[in-house]
Design brief:
This protein is of the alpha+beta class. The chain contains 4 helices and 7 strands, in the order H-E-H-H-E-E-E-E-E-E-H. The strands form 2 sheets. A 4-stranded antiparallel sheet has the order 1-2-3-4, covered by helices on one side. It has a 3-stranded antiparallel sheet with strand order 5-6-7, with helices on one face. Strand 5 (about 95-100) and strand 6 (about 110) form a beta hairpin. Helix 2 (about 20-40) packs antiparallel against helix 3. The longest helix is centred in the N-terminal third of the chain and has 24 residues, at about 20-40. It starts with a helix and ends in a 10-residue tail after the last helix.
Length: about 160
């Protein structure tokens, strides 16, 4: 597989997400829930309310871990949907001026036509750096292919 843009541009629709990180978080959430709930049930001398509090604490901790596994980016013919921890934003292709993943960045940032920058937690180089770089390039190629901006439009 060569590194030409046409080879890296994925077929739409495509979803980008940190697969390794997500898998680890889901497994840890399940193990956390089972372990803490089991401890609450196995400890002697606890009343029903205390046992319930163990299960609710396990549920809360697992919920936070699952929330951390939520980020993704979905690109389709009409634009991009960015799903971060608690927010979801739909962007048209023309709204995205540039895709950035600089050395040291925790995730991709999108420079938008309204002058703001949107963090994209669905592409992060934490555990799988090469995959994140490839995903960032693919998203950049998609933005370039679907951009309706004229060549005179500044992209910085």
């Amino acid at each position: 597989m060569s590194d030409t843009p046409q080879d890296t541009t994925p077929v739409l629709p495509v979803t980008f997400r940190p697969g390794s990180t997500r898998a680890v978080l889901i497994v840890v959430a399940a193990v956390t829930f089972v372990t803490i709930t089991a401890i609450g049930l196995l400890l002697k001398g606890l009343g029903p309310g205390e046992r319930l509090s163990f299960a609710l604490t396990a549920l809360l901790m697992s919920g936070v871990l699952l929330l951390l596994s939520r980020p993704k980016v979905v690109a389709d013919e009409s634009g991009v949907t960015v799903v971060n921890l608690t927010a979801k934003r739909r962007l048209e292709w023309a709204e995205i001026l540039q895709v950035n993943l600089r050395p040291g960045d925790p995730w991709v940032f999108l420079d938008l036509s309204d002058g703001t920058s949107l963090p994209v937690l669905g592409i992060q180089p934490g555990i799988a750096r090469r995959r994140a770089i490839a995903d960032a390039r693919a998203l950049r190629d998609l933005v370039e292919a679907h951009s309706t901006a004229t060549p005179d439009t500044p992209h910085a």
